[in-house]
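## retry 2 of 3
previous attempt timed out at serialization; input unchanged, resubmitting
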Amino acid sequence: MKGPRVVALALALLGASCALEPRSDSLTADLVLRGGKVFVADAAGTVHEAIAVRGDRILAVGTDDDISSLIGPDTRVVELEGRLVTPGMNDAHLHFAPGGVSMLEVELLGATSLAEIEARVREAVAKAAPGEWITGRGWDHTRLPPEELGPGGWPTAEALDRAAPDHPVYLRRVDGHTGWANTRAMRLAGVTARTRDPVDGEIVRYPDGRPTGIFKEGAQGLISRHVPRTTAEQLRRGVEAALALAARTGVTSVQTSVSPAELEVYQALRDEGKLTVRVYGWLPLSDRNIELFRTTRLHAPLGDEWIRIGLLKGFVDGTLGSRTAWMLEPFTDEPSTRGIPVITVEELERLVAAADAAGMQLELHAIGDAANRAALDAIEKAYAQNGRRDARHRITHVQVLDAADIPRFAALGVVASMQPTHATSDMRWVETRIGRERTEEGAYAWRKLLDAGAPMAFGTDFAVEPLRPVEGLYSAVTRQSREQPGTPPGGWLPGEKLTIHEAIRLYTAGSAWAEFAEADKGTLEPGKLADLVLWDRDLLTIPPAEILEAAPVLTVVGGRIVFEKQLAGAN
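## retry succeeded, writing output
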């Protein structure tokens, strides 16, 4: 991370925040939606009939009669005809620009056989220049027939060699924590049987020591550093693809990884009037970035209503799917390992304390119960050293918890930033990985955390999971398969289900609080930013299985319509 470049970008954001135009005092609305349900997403679960927008803010909510009095000759009026309006969805954890770039690569989500993967790679090869790298993301070995897998239950380079013998191929697993390379890629990278495993990763091998083509965690760098970097043009196209996807799925804010190059793209799009989501970005948790913010006396969050920086993100472990999540006890289906902690406890505690002292907000990736405990311990020790403040530090994923650690989130004020689709994707194999007892104790434990008073925020982890918020809402309410709705009957660990009101609030108000933005967004209250979604059906009352079929017909960001389907009753 280039320090001066980040400082310049940060100062530019601060300057932009001082240049906001004042709002008009006129009581005439620019946009009115009436004749339906307006779910405010406040703690009381308030529902109104209509909403009025002026400029980039909500002017009023209330009855149809109340709001009709705000209609002027230039007001656009949308007749809801019973449809539902909610706050815009705020994805509290995703990889927005990288996810957009991955939309330009080989797409492997949902592939259920090596033949299907090979076909998609061959299609990319047919369009590539001679010797060009073929990259992609989304494969999941747990979806492939066991007889097609090699050592450790992983695919091998042979399948990719068949599809692309003359091109280097590198495909990232759906979780982004494991990579799959073909023989040509390994040769270009100089990886052989003599290559040692890095301390924070693993090369999967044949019994004779030869690499199979699978690289876990830090070992991915052995291959990925040889893949050509994304060009500025590709990055711009990727961001634009992600913006279009967000608009048509109802996402109006994202909390995402950012790089200097990505920040420059977001700023350029904002200057051109083409930025259609609000961005809250995180930088890597490192001594360099801590020192940057400490010495410049910039405190989180900083920026304006469109682009802000506020988080430093660190990793504690890997993932359950790759058996690299750090567990208190060994994996049930691989007793030789408890996963891979990607940082020592001492280093984690040192970095967390330093970032907290510098006034930054922390985000720690933790999936296994040992990783979550280490993250909570580090934050607790930082408070003891620096004093308690309204830091809103968060732990992201929180997929497996020991029961003793569940109440600590509320006690420490640590946000549980969770992605409900992870549960419905992973439930096929979680109990095989960690056993029934640990699963029931604290796996994807939204209800236990919410009832314990933990601050929570929902997101998707896009491109690990689809960006569509309705898939997360459905998962939270049903805990059933998105591919085979209704299964398992009653839901997986049904005691962890949420109501649809709770799920929407965690995607809106909860996410806004997690980024210190509750005064400006997250609920549809007068004076807040006019970020809202009109749905094609009433999410509050439809049968849960129908949630998956729901879609926006209107997405509004800052009072501006950024997505619209043909809508009856509009004038």
